[in-house]
Amino acid sequence: MCRLIAGVSSNRNGSRQLAMLARALVDAARRDPYLERLTGGKARSHCHGYGYVLITSHTRGPPWRVRYEKFDSYTPGEDRDPGRACRSNLERLEEAVESVSQTLLGAERAYLILHARRAGRREPRGTVHAHPYHETVHTRDGPVEMWLAHNGGLKKDELAGELGVEAASYTDTGLLAAWIARRAEEDKEDKKIAKALGEGYKHVKSAYIVAVLTLASKPSQDPGLLLAVGLPGWKEKEAERADYYRPLLYRSDGIFAYASSTVEIYGENHGLEKKGFSEITVGKGPKIIRLTKDGPSRAL
Predict the structure, then answer these.
(1) Rounded average pLDDT over 252-279
(2) How far is CA 257 from CA 92, 94, 250, 296, in A?
(3) 2-298, which class in CATH?
(4) What is the reported pTM?
């Protein structure tokens, strides 16, 4: 479970609004009414770690600058105060987003994935397990850097079995990132990654909302941002779960971005227009979307 944004900006106004989305996510991580309703009041914050990857340009294209950071203050076996790590993570998230926002305010173009985590009770914790995960995909045309973040739940045993590792030592998202990287090896990076992203839906348990950012070794090639949205059949049956996972697209001058549902609640507090948000319609299978400076399009 998490709160997530993933977006691309094509001018300074778009980059400024991407910073606004990031600040709204901080508020959503701190208090999420959809999470409270879904858990019957047992949880209200996404405070089990955060992470982001930010790729920016101060011109209309390359060179690209990459910033990648993730953190979880939790120390297994040492935290006697369960709220300490939560408070620390939210404070660090706010600091990180302010730094990211300052960079975005000077960027002509930008790509961002930002994630705030709520870990399952049996899921591993710590900085290594915060999202987004990083993998290098080795293709015929050179290495491709890939970062992946996910909201939902996957069948860990299936993924771990295909990868030949122990499921308990990994998060479901970490396994998915490794699985997609392996599937994408020995082929051209973007369409192969998009295809593997679609195929990963067979491992879905609760929801499949995945953001993937790639940067190829060719200096002239733009970064790539892919989004997978798949919601199983419970969507019509469980209103609380549907509200929590409701996928949104934010669009305005110079920006196209995915946003978790709670981000919309806090968006106006940071200058975002409510009319900029719209729901992403999803059918029986996953929808694979490519977000570019020119707008969203089907990737498959």
Answers:
(1) 97
(2) 23, 20, 5, 9
(3) alpha beta
(4) 0.96
